[in-house]
Backbone:
C-alpha cells in the first residue's frame, strides 16, 4: 500500500483546517438562518457542535447585529449555488469510490473519476472563496485581523492533533514507517 508522503499529509491537513472555520459558517448559512436577529445563530441553539462554534466565532469577532444580518444575506444569496456544488462533489466522490472498488481494475476510469472529484472540489473552493470575500468585506479591518489569527490558531491546533495521531499510531495515518 502506498503511504502518504509528508508533503501530501501537510497539504491534506491544511486543506482540512482551511475548511473548518469557513465551512462551519458556510454550511450554517446553507442550512438556513445563519444568524438570528438577536444574540446568536438561529436554529442551532440545541446543536452543540457547529452551533456552539458559530456562536464563539461571532462573539470573538464581536459582530454587530448589522454585520450578522449582512452575513446572513450573503449566505442566503449563495445557498442554492453551494448546495449544488456540494451535491456535485458528493456524486463525484461516489463515482470515484465505485471506480476504485470496481471488480476489474480500470486505471482510466479511476483517473477520470478522480478528475471529476478534483473539478468539483475546485468549483466548490471558488464558490466558497467568493462567499469568504463577500464576508470579509463586511468585517472591519480589526475583525479581519482577528479572523486571520483564529484561522492560524485552528491550523496550529489541527497540526498538533495530527502530530499526536501520528505519535499514537506509528508514523502516519496507516501506521508503520513512512518512506
Residues:
Amino acid at each position: 500500500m502506498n503511504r502518504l508522503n509528508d508533503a501530501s499529509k501537510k497539504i491534506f491537513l491544511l486543506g482540512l483546517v482551511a475548511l473548518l472555520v469557513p465551512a462551519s459558517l458556510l454550511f450554517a448559512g446553507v442550512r438556513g438562518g445563519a444568524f438570528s436577529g438577536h444574540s446568536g445563530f438561529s436554529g442551532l441553539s440545541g446543536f452543540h457542535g457547529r452551533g456552539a462554534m458559530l456562536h464563539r466565532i461571532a462573539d470573538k469577532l464581536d459582530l454587530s447585529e448589522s454585520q450578522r444580518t449582512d452575513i446572513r444575506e450573503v449566505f442566503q444569496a449563495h445557498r442554492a449555488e453551494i448546495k449544488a456544488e456540494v451535491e456535485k462533489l458528493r456524486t463525484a466522490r461516489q463515482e470515484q469510490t465505485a471506480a476504485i472498488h470496481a471488480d476489474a481494475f480500470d486505471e482510466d476510469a479511476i483517473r477520470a473519476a478522480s478528475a471529476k472529484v478534483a473539478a468539483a472540489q475546485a468549483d466548490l473552493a471558488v464558490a466558497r472563496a467568493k462567499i469568504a470575500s463577500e464576508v470579509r468585506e463586511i468585517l472591519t479591518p480589526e475583525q479581519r485581523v482577528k479572523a486571520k489569527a483564529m484561522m492560524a490558531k485552528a491550523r496550529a491546533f489541527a497540526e498538533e492533533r495530527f502530530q499526536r495521531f501520528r505519535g499514537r499510531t506509528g508514523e502516519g495515518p496507516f501506521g508503520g514507517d513512512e518512506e
Q: What stands out?
A: The chain has one domain: 7-169. The two ends are 12 Å apart (CA to CA). Helices lie at 6-30, 50-61, 65-100, 107-138, 141-169.
